[in-house]
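Example A, followed by Example B.
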Amino acid sequence: LTCIDPRFPEPTLTYMKGRDMVGKYSQFTFAGAAIGVVAPCFKAWHKTFWDNLAASIQLHAVPKVIAMDHRDCGAAKIAYGADSIKTPDIETALHRKVLADFRKQCNERHPKLAVEMGLISLKGKVETFT
């Protein structure tokens, strides 16, 4: 799960190449990544994501979902206000919360599915959350 931000396809692909994952995953991309799945203002999108994930599990037997949020996210500003990302610490806290909510919802819907969560920087560095 990634965001539509045009700055991130290349760094995300580089990250996935480094994990030897190219050609081994289904990708779903929409504004905000995990924010688009859990934020109330994007409620109309939630069903689309969960239906798509269920189809991916059925079609490709995916064992885990990787949710990759990113820094300087416009969808975060829409959903939670500009102050939600005004400092790196505040921004990290927001993404931790969103990704934890995302994991919780994944576990409720697909208890056997592993969930990885990350936050990618503008330079492509990925910070993972447990």
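Example B, a separate protein, is given below in the same form.
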Amino acid sequence: MLRIFYTLLSYIIQPFILLMMWKRGYKQPAYRRRLFERYGYYHELAKPEANGIIVHAASVGEVIAATPLIRAIQTHYPKLPITVTTVTPTGSARVRAAFGNSVSHFYLPYDLPDAVLRFLNFVNPKLIIVIETELWPNLIHQVHKKGIAFIIANARLSPRSAKRYGWIKFSVEHMLNKISLIMAQDAVSAERYLALGFHPEKLVNTGNLKFDLEITDTLRNKVNSTKQELAFAERPVWIAGSTHEGEEKLLLDAHKQLLSQWPDLLLILVPRHPERFGAVEELLVKSNLNYIKRTDKRPLKPNTQVLLGDTMGEMMQLYGLAKIAFVGGSLVKHGGHNPLEPIAFELPVISGVHTFNFPEIFAKLRYVKGVVEVKSDVQDIAQAVHFLLSNAEVCKKISQAGFDVLQENQGALKRHMALLAPYLEK
């Protein structure tokens, strides 16, 4: 009954969703493109080979988590067709940057019965793997009706989501038990799924795939070619990655302070969302700092003080250009982003205190002193960067401690592949 109400409401709000997408398209035109895919229409698009798998990774963070898993599946099952679906254009760009044409890629349609059915008939998969937390009632229902296995990999359930699902536990339990397997990324998420009524025999705590991040030779080559393209001199470089509104002004003011002591210091500033590139550039203009944009595709000048990362799909290679990394979403109450990306390059990481999206990872980093946490304060940020620039030995200890955490917690990928094998070989 609840699914029927949910479905009716989903149809009713579609005009408002279309209006929202159209408005978003003013700042980010990619939201206006490929709208038909969001309703399960794939005119003139190549149909994937049947009996393959779908990996759904909603946006950039999920694509990053899914990347080692997809690569492992490609290595062990080279003839298995793989379709990767996302929800956001940034996720789409990340898929293309990571896999090119080696996978099919589409947007996952809205959770409407007819759209989902068209999508499933178009792809015709034998298995759907959803990364982290994407529970769509109509998708799960249609997949179950068709006898397609549905698995949640690297499953995470936040306290907020667990509480909300708890209000409708009977309906959620009915939906969850149509799922073939849940591979939880930590014990806390596993317990939350069990509390909602999921069968314990179909749940395994496999650990977090994000720890199985690897810097490939291909990525290192991209980093080196980017250094040549930008004509990097031997300058100290720090990066602020995945920043949100309210953070850039603090970071630019901190950078101004740092330039008085480190006049050749370069900041690479990378906003999380492409629709904010313009607003961040306006802040740069007001700051009177000399900057160039990554999309300018031109070399740095000796007086360039900021590089604005206004591209999609390049976050990892931009991290590879730096010596110190600040990870955004943490000075404001967004919950932070994945610190393991810069840590994989053995960079010391600076973070704000709002890191509730990654409690397990940050707890491990704090325990070994593998992260520097700062308040939402210009002076505090500047002091942290200055300290790391001035103390090479301490900087190395912090980066090594973080890198050790990354390496010691790897193994989730191997466990995921072992559990997925019966479904992939079927």
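On Example B: The chain has a mean pLDDT of 93.
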